[in-house]
Amino acid sequence: MSIHKHLHFCIKKYRRAFESFALMLVQAAVIVSLLPQSAHAHAIAGDRVFPATLEVDDPSVATELSLPAVSWARGPLDDNGNFPNLTNIGAEFDLLIAPNLAVGISDGCQGGTRRLWL
Fold first, then answer.
1. How many helices (H) and strands (E) does the chain have?
2. If you write DSSP's letter for every residue of 78-98 in order, what string do you get?
3. Based on the structure, what is the number of domains in the chain?
4. pLDDT tens, position by position, 1-48
5. Nearest residue to 42 (alpha-carbon basis) of 54, 25, 59
6. Which domain holds residue 15?
7. Residues near 65 by beta carbon (within 8 Å), at least 6 away in sequence
């Protein structure tokens, strides 16, 4: 029997076992992701909190993933009778490399007064 026929035979014979094993892995992953986890605050040192400012985006260095970051603002009525809207959708990933060094990657899109966003 050639190797191709042997592999085909094994796949047919053990297909249900492979499918149940894959289902078991997915169920285990879901259960583990739903387990309670402790939250670790960052940007806190003792009784002091270091908030983000305009000059320093994130004063604490940590590995973070922000998906999606969505903001929407409605402006006042303009001369054409429309309410101008501003919609921002973005994402950011920050990776902690050393205790005081991180690399960040971010991207986003911005939409204006178009009715397509509504």
1. 2, 5
2. -TTS---EEEEEEEEEEEEEE
3. 2
4. 577 787 777 778 788 888 888 899 999 999 988 888 776 666 777 787
5. 59
6. 1-39
7. 92, 93, 94
Give the whole-angstrom CA distance, residue 89 versus residue 69: 6
Encode pLDDT of 59-113 as tens digits: 666 788 888 888 888 877 777 777 777 888 888 888 888 877 888 888 888 877 6
**Higher per-residue pLDDT: 111 or 114:** 111
The verdict on 26 and 78 lying in the same domain is no
Single-letter amino acid, residue 14:
Y
The pair phi, psi for residue 2, each rounded to 5°, is -75, 165
Task: Looking at the structure, tell me whether residues 61 and 114 fall in a common domain.
Answer: yes
Give the 3-state secondary structure of residue 75: coil
What gap in Å lies between CA 104 and CA 94, rounded to an integer?
4
Whole-angstrom CA distances from 1 to 4, 6, 7 are 8, 6, 10
